[in-house]
Amino acid sequence: MLYNSMDKIAVKVDDLTVAYNYKPVLWDIDLEIPEGVLMAIVGPNGAGKSTLIKAILGILKPIAGSVTIYDKSYEKQRRLVAYVPQKGSVDWDFPTTALDVVMMGTYGSLGWIKRPGQKEKKAALEALEKVGMLAFKSRQISQLSGGQQQRIFLARALVQNASIYFMDEPFQGVDATTEIAIINILKELRKAGKTVIVVHHDLQTVPEYFDWVTFLNVKKIATGPVKDIFNDDNLTKTYGINYKVSIQE
Amino acid sequence: MDITEYIQLVFTDYTLRTITLGTAVLGAATGMLGSFAVLRKQSLLGDAISHAALPGIAIAFLITGAKDTNTLLIGALVSGLIGTFWIRGIVTKTHLKSDTALGLILSLFFGFGMLLLTFIQKQPNANQAGLDKYLFGQAATLVESDVWLMAIVTGICLIVMLTFWKEFKILLFDADYTKTLGFNTKTIDILITSFIVLAIVLGLQTVGVVLMSAMLLAPAAAARQWTNSLAMMVFLAALFGAFSGVFGTAISATQNNLSTGPVIVLVASVFVVFSFVFSPSRGLLFKQIRFIKNRRDLELHKTLAFMHHIAETHEDISHPHAIKLLNNFQGYTRSTLQKLVEKDYVELKGNMWSLTKIGFETAANLYTKQVTENE
Ligand SMILES: Nc1ncnc2c1ncn2[C@@H]1O[C@H](COP(=O)(O)OP(=O)(O)OP(=O)(O)O)[C@@H](O)[C@H]1O
Ligand SMILES: [Mg+2]
């Protein structure tokens, strides 16, 4: 596979514990994600997958633990990281266009006050093209379908030109064609040496799409190469029920 | 008094001019800032802030014994800010929902403020009268310096908004994502909220505690109906707010004994109702019209498709068929047939019809997916 040098760790999570109320929803998570993998995070609803990503990205403050990106604190490495939130986390009736949303991906490198210019617009248009949404650039975002909105979010992250991508259920509610289009983009990112972490629900497609996987259910159950650890044992431990995957090979 | 007379009066009469300018500036400021509150789904925020300002007015009076607007409004500002940051605190520290926190602070501060007002009114001091004007506002007490203050605050607010436009926009749309880009969302949030507090406090004298939040919400809600661009929405909201001020003042000035604040709020509400009914893209009226039109088009298409179905069985597509045949089809009426003729899809000869070439092609393409994205 493509992760030839196991020594380079892109993301390292140490003893991470997160709670919204008293009861932790993530408990003592240790995680090392090697550079250049395309990793799935799997686990049942409420397992804490979104929470894990939010804690890594500093959106939530953990009770304990630390996160490093290429051996430095996340705050110092922010520019290397891009985020695709769950689609339902924003109000799509907001008065703005598809192009405008994608442009937001450039705001981080612009910093405070500076306005996006031609260069940023060009980058945004390229990203729209990549996700096949160029024709919709002037559309009001509420008039996009769910799958199209998902692709807009993906384009916004692509504009950031990051090294590490965190995506929360990018396949949610997209049709088969769009799913293939998106996975091809993710594979391209991996080919370019980027690290891509994806919250994923469809267990059937894990071996086909991903080379790395993390099982999560409040605690980390397992993490590693799909071919080594994607088995009934880990699935049963994660999902509680006795799992018989009809996954071949 | 007719309109030209009134307009003349606005320019010559000092009091009327002051009130008109004051309410216009106030309306513009609250409309502009209200857009942000509406888009953040913080509609109750304005209500909470204005009610939270009341005890500040009372306390400022009790401490200083002064009754001039500026002293009292500083009191209002302080207690408004305290209320706002308590709300923030409650939301982040506990797990109460933000509307619960808003409601809590609103009633707590307002109750306390009313208590203080009654206490003040019981005082033998003759000076106490008139504080209750802050409940419903009294535009007539506006003086030139008040208007200047409003104009300056609005100007500063405009400059800050233009400077941090990009930051405001992204925070309103997606706060979590904004954080990951390295922006301090708390700073942006405090900036927006502080200006909202400031605008509300400036409006208390004119519109009063009870109705102030309508000045924040109504212009913004109306503006949202007309546009899909944030900049346009903010601009329209400011415009609607300003017009509400001007019209409201005009109505209350020409009709004796109507107090200005409530009239301004009513005018703003008229903007809302009008916008919800008549906006071309989101309004109820045009939605209904579009719905009816779509249904008509559908009937037409169905009839055409049915005819196409019959015509297909013949080698010659223009072969005439009996109109009687169409009676078997449910959606068919004389008028749909007439419309199809008008569109050149169908030709009639006696009681026979035939499809034209365009008609046949249109029908054939009716239900294949339309891949038109002409933007
Ligand atoms: N804002 C919040 N306040 C309180 N509890 C929360 C909050 N967000 C999530 N939780 C709880 O934390 C747990 C983990 O939630 P999280 O959203 O991370 O799950 P998930 O694995 O992403 O689930 P899904 O597959 O449904 O997206 C759940 O039990 C959820 O109820
Ligand atoms: Mg989730």
From TrEMBL, chain B:
InterPro entries: ABC_BtuC-like, ABC_TroCD. Keywords: Cell membrane, Membrane, Transmembrane, Transmembrane helix, Transport. The chain crosses the membrane at residues 21-39, 45-64, 71-89, 101-120, 147-165, 190-218, 230-251, 263-286. One of its GO terms (biological process) is response to zinc ion. GO terms for cellular component: ATP-binding cassette (ABC) transporter complex. Pfam families: ABC-3. Belongs to the ABC-3 integral membrane protein family. This is Metal ABC transporter permease. It comes from Winogradskyella flava.
